[in-house]
């Protein structure tokens, strides 16, 4: 679909459409194709593995730095996020998007708290690209309770400046999500292949 088609369909300017598409392309959600326009990006297991492996490397370092350098205000911000998440635990499913956003904010706040601005920016951008995978893990597999508990344990460890515990929690948290998402994507791929094979018979 082209910028012009989207602009006409949505009733907004092409400038706004271009800015939105540039952001979506940067986040890996759409792909720009010469003379054709934009298409939704394909999400495969290999891309998911690479994204989560990179997250594991970068976020472990971010957690170490946060344990060493986070200020009291960072600790307060992290605890406030967990408190709000706890308050959403038994709410209407419409609040799941907010809980998802808060979960991502835990990771972003920890990255900022470490004091390395370049690392924080890279983690922020990587999390943007991983949102579709995280949402898949939470919604398709209903892992809200596990994610909530893992975020709470991570925040407690960072606020206690317990590097060993914090790095253990973040590594396991990302590894579990990686396994869940990759297994789900591969299962869906296999089902599609079976359906295609069945229809060809």
Automatic annotation (TrEMBL):
Keywords: DNA-binding, Transcription, Transcription regulation
GO terms, molecular function: DNA binding; DNA-binding transcription factor activity
One Pfam family cited in the UniProt record for this chain: FCD
Top-rank lineage group of the source organism: Bacteria
UniProt signal peptide: none
Coiled-coil regions listed in the entry: none
Residue ranges of every copy of the HTH gntR-type domain listed in the record: 1-43
Annotated protein name in UniProt: GntR family transcriptional regulator
Species for this entry: Paracoccus liaowanqingii
